[in-house]
Specification:
Layout (H helix, E strand, L loop, with lengths): L1 H17 L8 E2 L12 H14 L6 H17 L6 H8 L9 H15 L4 H20 L6 E7 L7 E6 L2 E7 L7 H23 L10 E2 L6 H15 L4 H24 L5 H11 L5 H13 L1 H6 L2 H15 L4 H8 L6 H7 L20
Parallel strand pairs: 1-3, 2-4
Antiparallel strand pairs: 1-5, 3-4
Length: 368
């Protein structure tokens, strides 16, 4: 059944690429010959629905979760608008309850305290080379990977994007949005190169006989663990590097603020109040940035799912580093062996925080 699901996704991906739309497959762990494009999105939706309905009772739950995510994402592309919490549960595999106002404020104070104390591709490669032995030792992986770094200049939300197939990873830097310092280069090397690229290559090296779908897509349940680990990796690899730790603290806080905006705009809050709230939380944010965040989380079917993986993932891994560091090595080793869904993360820390937040977040006025 896994092969049938993969074949259907490959045809769907070929269809989207042929139309010039956003690809479905972000990292192909088990490359095959090029697939023929599907006839339509509806054809793909119908076929995925058939596969899920015909799945035997003993089907690997990760396969069912992937089918559920693909179906929900396709339905959204075809105009279905589920509530944010339902949509994120179906795609990312976690809740989108949000975080209490006082918790976000605490993380903001923590980030400000951490910050109070103090040639792009080449810098990234140098930082990645220096940090790679530590990450490999921590993750227990010797999988080879080859990295190509390219630059682009496009009007898109992303500053950095990693994709690839097998052991070959491609990192694209969008020069319209990417900004670097020496500290950011080290953080970037951990996030994109030793986080995403090495993790993907490690999964590709051992995926021949696995029951789960070997096509990584950012709308699917493995993304929370992938983005969370990549963002928080400095806390485990370089915990004594104050500059990198400060960057993680800042990223954690700003992702929680973005989560407040995502929940608010999907709950009927006014645009003006969302902008005021974003400015109050992060004074240096421009109206354009806040507006883009609201558009992404409110109207884009892919980003409405994918962007939630950032706050949900980073919050869980930061809390792991703070409250249960002894469990971290097992989590990291598992993450470089197979894709982990939010339920898998929760099994490592049964008493840990709810992934996606406990709810009770700040309420903004409604009405546009």
């Amino acid at each position: 059944m896994r092969d049938e699901v993969e074949a259907t996704i490959r045809g769907w991906d070929a269809y989207e690429r042929a139309r010039g739309a956003t690809p479905v497959i972000d990292y192909d762990l088990h490359p095959q010959d090029a697939a023929a494009p599907a006839a339509s999105r509806y054809e793909v939706l119908h076929r995925l629905g058939e596969l899920r309905a015909a799945a035997p009772g003993d089907t690997d739950p990760r396969l069912i979760a992937r089918l559920t995510a693909d179906i929900a994402y396709l339905q959204a592309m075809l105009g279905v608008r589920a509530t944010l919490r339902d949509y994120v549960r179906q795609t990312q595999g976690c809740d989108a309850a949000g975080w209490p106002e006082e918790y976000v404020t605490f993380r903001g104070d923590q980030a400000r305290a951490a910050l109070a104390g103090f040639g792009i591709p080449d810098a990234i490669r140098e930082a990645a080379t220096g940090l790679e032995p530590d990450v490999r030792a921590l993750a227990g992986t010797d999988a080879p990977f080859r990295l190509a770094i390219e630059t682009a200049d496009v009007d898109a939300y992303w500053a950095y994007w990693l994709d690839g197939a097998g052991a070959d990873a491609r990192l694209r830097l969008n020069l319209r949005r990417a900004r670097f310092t020496a500290v950011m280069a080290r953080q970037f090397a951990l996030h994109e190169v030793l986080g995403h690229a090495l993790q993907s290559a490690s999964l590709a090296a051992r995926c021949a006989g696995v029951p789960w779908v070997r096509l990584m897509s950012v709308h699917a349940p493995q993304q929370v663990a992938s983005e969370g680990l990549a963002q928080a990796l400095p806390l485990f690899v370089t915990p004594d590097d104050r500059h990198l730790v400060a960057r993680v603290r800042l990223a954690h806080y700003t992702q929680l603020v973005l989560a407040e905006l995502y929940v608010a705009i999907n709950s009927g809050a006014s645009v003006a109040d969302c902008v005021r709230h974003g400015r109050a939380r992060v004074p240096y944010w421009r109206d354009e940035l806040i507006g883009d965040a609201l558009s992404d989380a409110g109207t884009n079917p892919l980003l409405r799912s994918y962007l939630w993986s950032y706050p949900a993932g980073v919050d869980w891994f930061v809390r792991l580093a703070e409250t249960d560091p002894a469990a971290a090595p097992a989590v990291l080793r598992a993450a470089y062996r197979e894709p982990l869904a939010p339920a898998d993360l929760a099994a490592f820390a049964p008493d840990g925080p709810p992934i996606g937040g406990p709810g009770r977040q700040a309420t903004l006025p409604s009405g546009r």
